[in-house]
Every structure is written in structure tokens, then in C-alpha cells.
Amino acid sequence: MGAEPQECLPEQPARRERGRRRLLWVPLTGLTALVLAGAALRLAGRAGPADLVWAAATVAALVPAAWAVLRDLWRRRFGVDVIAVLALAGALVVREYLAGAVIAVMLATGRALEAYARQRATRDLRALLARAPRTARRRGPDGTIEVVPLDRVRVGDALLVGPGDVVPVDGRVDEPVTLDESVVTGESRLVHRAAGEQVASGVVNAGAGFPMRAVKDAAASTYAGIVRLAEEASAHRAPMVRLADRYAAAFVPFTLVLAGLAWLLSGEFVRAVAVLVVATPCPLLLATPIAIVSGLSRTARRGVLVRDGASLELLGRARTLLVDKTGTLTAGRPRAAETVAAPGGDRDEVLRLAASVEQLSPHVLARALVRQARDRGLRLAEPRDVTEEPGRGVRGRVEGRTVRVGQLDGDLPDWAERARSRADLAGHSVVWVGGDAGPLGAILLEDPVRPDARRTVRRLREAGLRRIVMVTGDRPDTAEQVARTVGVDDVLARCSPAEKVDRVRAEADRAVTVMVGDGVNDAPALAEAHVGVAMGATGATASADVADAVLTVDRLDRLADAVEIARYARRVAVQSATVGMGLAGLAMLAAAAGRLPPVAGAFLQEGIDVLVILNALRALRGGLRHRDLPAGTRELLTTYAGQHDRVRDVLADLRDAADLLATRPDDPTCLPALRATHRRLTGEVLPHDTAEEQRLYPALADPLGGTGATATTSRAHVEIRRLTDRIGAHLAQTGAGPVRPDQRTDLLATLYGLAAVLRLHLDQEDEEYYALSPPAPG
């Protein structure tokens, strides 16, 4: 049974949207027509009808403006709108009808420009709403496919996503797929997901149709949360009201006092009207909201949805950042940092057996092992007789042999003691893999620091954040390691949700504070901060519901983008307001002195308004401290970043070969292990380094500001080759025999030294280069 193409935006709402856009210009068109008609009558010598037409234009603008002011006063709000109302009313009283009409056109022009800028600035938020899926193709028990409303999709339903369809709910794919995630994450490149991976709702199928299994219903899915946030953001009044009213607290009394003094000292009420005319506060009413709404749009395009303009304003004033560790500074998903095999065993076989028996487990560690094995291209077998004991691990049969994954009972052999000691020193978790004859190996798991974390912390400091604190429930030693790696100012370990709230409250008492987190336990702290930011791409719906901003892409560097954009938008808004009020202040003094009649003042104020509004539109561009990379450079980064996992595997070979040489130099497997490691160095690591030198580093020269930016890592390539050649020279001297005693010291120093240099080099490349365009999360 076929299915209708999935509907994204019905034609009827689209027509209504176009109709609303046309209506925006109706008041301006009508008032302009009245002013021109009055001018034509005046030129024809009919002054009375001309004044009548201009008076009508003034009244047409005065009535809705006065109603808005009265409504605000009823709600105990007092803002800058009152000056516009007084100016229009004063023009009518002193019979300066042309001045009133010009003020009316000025207000209509400003509001039309504001509406246009708001539409332009919020098109990304509207695009999210427009692309919201409404139906899904569901496969029935008999194999037929039916199109059902989205609210009828349940967890576990088998769905079919056709070419070009929007993925309706969060699900898990059964085969490799190609997706366009640009609407949700801001990433322009296509993303490939392997079989078994989870895909988020709202992304677009950019390849052939594929089946998937729903893991969340529509209300709990990723896109639904984003849409809710977008609806809230677009429903708010044009932002910056609080900033505008802060200026109004001083500007409005000053205007009224100056107008009163001009009238009192001169005895001419027309001077008071002239002061009110040039004080009409379009810079506050219009220019500042345009700048902030433009900032909202730009953060949305960078993958950060900010709830409203007040939140963006606070983000632009932030001085303190509190950040959760797990899932924010770290990946939040464990990975196998190292696999240790028992003497005579094979690391890949240990990982393959563990992943095979863990395929049926829902545990997060099990998914990490399965994902790691598939990434390495290992063939997983179907497990039999699988049982799971909570807190102890999983047991099953793989290809006729018993495999246990989890805790290890009894005394540990020497190799296992060394593996556990190594894990403790590095802050890793250990998963033991055993069989009927005893332990087969160990898998050391880590929650790796995000490659972009340190660079992002530096950029946040450059953007004006003076204090960055990491809060985590993890062990102090692990927390300290991560804190030193990313460069935060302070760390609070073993922190409960209540303690996080207390710390956020204490920091917020001293400065405007931002809190970033991704888990349910972070939700109270996010709600307590001035600006709570949720890592929404990880599916943390509870924290996203209380947050003021959500990162829809799993990239921490976008937070730095958002802070820079917020500061720039706020700076432009304040500049527009300050310059506009300064120019208006000079004009007001001239009007109070009788040097500027109301009509001339109205035209002058029109020019001031256009100037500050055009300045406010600068917030649609600029402010970011870094440039986006060219597409070709991004592709190179993706290519070579994908090779880093294989290069890191060589680190384990180096460590194993060095340990074997140090503890059992006469073992028959020692020399073959050294030769195998050298072959991997010359066959995988050195060609990778050469390709980076020839292709990647030249491409990075322009974005990084010159070839000097890659000089340090380029020098590391030279050292890696030198140490590799030294190992090769030792092996050539050894020949077919064992390693000579006089070679061991230098060879051990070379192996351990190369391991340290290679590890540092890979971390530096990840931080300095690959963090510029981090790969999409798996």
C-alpha cells in the first residue's frame, strides 16, 4: 500500500502567512497616501482641506497609540510610548497638522521596518514550525503501510521514512541512512548514520527510503521540544522591552521637564510641542527590538534556540558560567579507551566477544561496546542463552563458548592487576571479559573530553565571561583531570542536584550567571540561573523544558557563538538607543530654544529614526570572532578526523609492546609484537601525518591566520617520524634474534616517548583543528 508524501506546510497557512506580510505595510501606505494628498491640496492652494487630511492622518496614528499607552498604564507599565502620544496630541492642539502627519508616517515607517526585520530575523524559527511533521508511515503486522497522524505513533512502532520525508519521531534505524540535519542542528553537510544508531525527529531523509523503529512518541521526541521552544520565542513581544524601559525611566522625565520649561520660560506652547516631536522615541521603541530579534535569529541559525529577547540580553551581560561535566564538557557517552587482552590473547577478539554478548542489553555501557566493535569493523555473532544480573554483568554463549562481561570474581592475575591499576590512574572504568577458563581481557572505558571543550572555554573568556566553574557529581580526581584539561577556574565534585542549585544561587548573587547542563538532575540548577542552557541534542527533555536556551546541535562551540552574538546584538541595541537619544537630545535643546519648529523637527526625527534602525539591522551580521570554514576544508577535517581512531589504536600497540619488552623481554612474542607495531607506525601513522602535511595543513593556513598556526603540530610530525625510524633501526640491528640487553633501555625510552608524543599530538590536533568542525555525534 502506498502513502501520500509527508506534508510539511499546508497551502492554507502559507497563504495566510503571505497575507499577513502584505498587511504589515497597509498602515504605512495609507498614512503616506494621506500626507501626499495633503501636500497636493496645499500646492493647489487649498490649505483648509490639506490641514484636514493631515489632521486625519495624525488622529489615525494617535488613537491606537493612545489605546496602547492606556492599556500599559492599566497594567502598571510605563514606557516610552507616552512621548509619541503627547507629540501627536500636541501637534493637534497647536494645529501643526503637517508635523503630526509626519510623526504618524514616522511611527508607521518604524513599525513596518520593525515588522519586516522581525520577519527576516525569525524566519529560522518559523521554518522549524513549518517543517514540523504531522503524519508518519507506519507498517502494520501484515506488512501493509498506512499513513497515520503523528499522535498515533507509539514507542516500538515500525515506521517507514520515504525519500525527502521528515523523520517523524525519534527512532533507531535498521540500516545505514543519509540525513540532512541542517534544520535541527545547523550543520549544512549530510550526515551518515549506521545501522542501530538513533536518529532525531525533524531531520530530513536525504537518501533512499528506510525503515526505523520508534523509540519515543511524538510529544517526547527531539523536534517536538524544539518546536515548543520556537513557538514560545516567536509568541513573545518584540524583545528588549526591559532595556528600553530602563532608558525610558530617565528619558521620559527629561523630555517632559524640558518641554515644560520651554513652555514656561517662553510662554509658547508650540515650543513644548516641538520638543515632544523630536523626542518621539523610535530608537527605543523600534531599533533596540530589531537588534535583539536579529540576534535571536542568528543564534537559531547557529543551532542555539534562545527562548526570548530578555534571555538573549542576559546572555549578552553574563560574567559567570557554571557547566556540568558529563555530556557537556565530556561526550556523555562512554567509549572503549583501551582493550587489554590476557597474555597470548587478541584485543579485537576480546572486544568482539564482549560486544556480541552485549547486543541484547539496554545498558549504556553495552551500547558503547557494540558501537565500538562495529566502528572497528568487527563481525558480531548472535548470542545465545543470554542472562543479565543487575550490578554484576551479562553472561551468554557466543559461537559455542561461554562469555561473561562485567565484574570479575576471585583473585586477579598479574596482567589484570596491572590493567586495573592503569585504569585507576587514568580515571577509567573497567569491564572484564571472561570465559570458562578465566578472564580473557579487560576493556577500559572513558567519558572523553569533547575535542572542542578547551577551545570553547577560551572563546567564552574572550567573549567576556570572567569566571567558569565546573560542577559534577563525579569523583574529585576525575573531575580535577577534566578541569585541568579544559581550563576552568574552579571545580565542584561529588555535587548533588541540591548543591548545584546552591552554587548557582551563590554565583548569581555576584554576577549574571549562565548554567549549562544536559541531564534531568541539571534541571533545578538551570531554572535557578539567570540563563539556563540545555544540551537539547542529547535528548534531555526535562532540562530543555526549564531552560532559557537549548543547544539543538551536539556542539559546545555553538554556546560560544551564542554568547558572542548576544553581546554583539546587545551592543548594537545599546548603541542605537544611545546615538538616537543623543541626537534627539540635541534636537530637543534646539526646539526648546525656538530654533526648530515642529514640522522641521518631525522631518529631522524621521532621519534620526531611519539612521538608528539601519544601524540596528547590523545585528543580522557580524560579532562572531571566527569564520566558518570552506566546504572543502570541512571535508578534509572530516576525513582525517575519521582516521584518528585508527591512529589511536596504535597507541595501545605501542604500550603493549613496551610493557612486554619491559616485563618479559625473552618472551617469543616480544619481537613479533615490536615488528607488528612498527609496521602499523610506518603503514598507518606516517602516511596519515604526510597527508595532513600535504593537504590539511595548507587548507587550514587561511582560516587560522597563516602557516605559523600549524608549526607546532608539524614539528610533532617530524618527531614522530624520527622516533619511528629509531625503532626501525633497533629492529634492523636485532635481525632474527631477540632484543639484545644493550638495546632495551633505549628501545623502551623510544617506545614510551613515542606513545607520549603521539598522544599529545592527537589531542592537540583534536583541540586546535578538528574542533573547528567537530564530527556529528554517533
Automatic annotation (TrEMBL):
<keyword id="KW-0472">Membrane</keyword>
<dbReference type="InterPro" id="IPR036412">
    <property type="entry name" value="HAD-like_sf"/>
</dbReference>
<dbReference type="Pfam" id="PF01814">
    <property type="entry name" value="Hemerythrin"/>
</dbReference>
<comment type="similarity">
    <text>Belongs to the cation transport ATPase (P-type) (TC 3.A.3) family. Type IB subfamily.</text>
</comment>
<keyword id="KW-0547">Nucleotide-binding</keyword>
<dbReference type="GO" id="GO:0005886">
    <property type="term" value="C:plasma membrane"/>
</dbReference>
<dbReference type="InterPro" id="IPR023298">
    <property type="entry name" value="ATPase_P-typ_TM_dom_sf"/>
</dbReference>
<dbReference type="Pfam" id="PF00122">
    <property type="entry name" value="E1-E2_ATPase"/>
</dbReference>
<feature type="transmembrane region" description="Helical">
    <location>
        <begin position="77"/>
        <end position="94"/>
    </location>
</feature>
<dbReference type="GO" id="GO:0005524">
    <property type="term" value="F:ATP binding"/>
</dbReference>
<keyword id="KW-1003">Cell membrane</keyword>
<dbReference type="GO" id="GO:0046872">
    <property type="term" value="F:metal ion binding"/>
</dbReference>
<feature type="domain" description="P-type ATPase A">
    <location>
        <begin position="132"/>
        <end position="231"/>
    </location>
</feature>
<keyword id="KW-0067">ATP-binding</keyword>
<dbReference type="InterPro" id="IPR012312">
    <property type="entry name" value="Hemerythrin-like"/>
</dbReference>
<dbReference type="GO" id="GO:0019829">
    <property type="term" value="F:ATPase-coupled monoatomic cation transmembrane transporter activity"/>
</dbReference>
<feature type="transmembrane region" description="Helical">
    <location>
        <begin position="23"/>
        <end position="41"/>
    </location>
</feature>
<keyword id="KW-1133">Transmembrane helix</keyword>
<dbReference type="GO" id="GO:0016887">
    <property type="term" value="F:ATP hydrolysis activity"/>
</dbReference>
<dbReference type="InterPro" id="IPR059000">
    <property type="entry name" value="ATPase_P-type_domA"/>
</dbReference>
<keyword id="KW-0479">Metal-binding</keyword>
<dbReference type="InterPro" id="IPR023299">
    <property type="entry name" value="ATPase_P-typ_cyto_dom_N"/>
</dbReference>
<protein>
    <submittedName>
        <fullName>Heavy metal translocating P-type ATPase</fullName>
    </submittedName>
</protein>
<dbReference type="InterPro" id="IPR051014">
    <property type="entry name" value="Cation_Transport_ATPase_IB"/>
</dbReference>
<dbReference type="InterPro" id="IPR023214">
    <property type="entry name" value="HAD_sf"/>
</dbReference>
<dbReference type="GO" id="GO:0015086">
    <property type="term" value="F:cadmium ion transmembrane transporter activity"/>
</dbReference>
<dbReference type="InterPro" id="IPR001757">
    <property type="entry name" value="P_typ_ATPase"/>
</dbReference>
<keyword id="KW-0812">Transmembrane</keyword>
<dbReference type="InterPro" id="IPR008250">
    <property type="entry name" value="ATPase_P-typ_transduc_dom_A_sf"/>
</dbReference>
<feature type="transmembrane region" description="Helical">
    <location>
        <begin position="53"/>
        <end position="70"/>
    </location>
</feature>
<dbReference type="Pfam" id="PF00702">
    <property type="entry name" value="Hydrolase"/>
</dbReference>
<feature type="transmembrane region" description="Helical">
    <location>
        <begin position="272"/>
        <end position="293"/>
    </location>
</feature>
<dbReference type="InterPro" id="IPR018303">
    <property type="entry name" value="ATPase_P-typ_P_site"/>
</dbReference>
<feature type="transmembrane region" description="Helical">
    <location>
        <begin position="247"/>
        <end position="266"/>
    </location>
</feature>
<feature type="domain" description="Hemerythrin-like">
    <location>
        <begin position="640"/>
        <end position="771"/>
    </location>
</feature>
<dbReference type="InterPro" id="IPR027256">
    <property type="entry name" value="P-typ_ATPase_IB"/>
</dbReference>
